[in-house]
Automatic annotation (TrEMBL):
SUPFAM superfamilies in alphabetical order: Putative DNA-binding domain
Signal sequence interval, chain numbering: none
GO molecular function, one term: DNA binding
Identification of the protein by name: MerR family transcriptional regulator
Transmembrane segment boundaries: none
Source organism: Trinickia terrae
Positions of the HTH merR-type domain: 18-88
Assigned keywords, A-Z: DNA-binding
InterPro entries given in the database record: DNA-bd_dom_put_sf (IPR009061), MerR-type_HTH_dom (IPR000551), MerR_fam (IPR047057)
UniProt keyword rRNA-binding, yes or no: no
Amino acid sequence: MTTTVEKVVLPPIPAKRYFTIGEVSELCGVKPHVLRYWEQEFTQLRPVKRRGNRRYYQHHEVLLIRRIRELLYEQGFTINGARNRLDSHGAVIDELDEASAAIEAPVVAASPASAPAAAGVVNVEQLRNDLLGVIDLLRR
């Protein structure tokens, strides 16, 4: 008996610098306690901790969490397998693939007050954040 896992469609990531654990939970389809556990298991996840030990995730970390979720939930990797995949080369290559896919999409400059971009159109600020996340990953 084979089971097929459907890929879950996650909401677009807003163009902002920091996200709370609750926001990341909704954006990635993962409960907050799972995110806290993944921080212990994946050394690449290091959210900024501020007043009261509150976690704030950056855009590249949200992308990384989505990648971890995909490896674990959709591709069936174990924690160790996903960690090895990300440690070897997976995170950087996957981030570059996502960034290149975003670059190939039509780019439309949007004012902050404008309505959300239509499907298939990339927000320039989000593209900038994606590329900054890739640069940050490459520097590690």
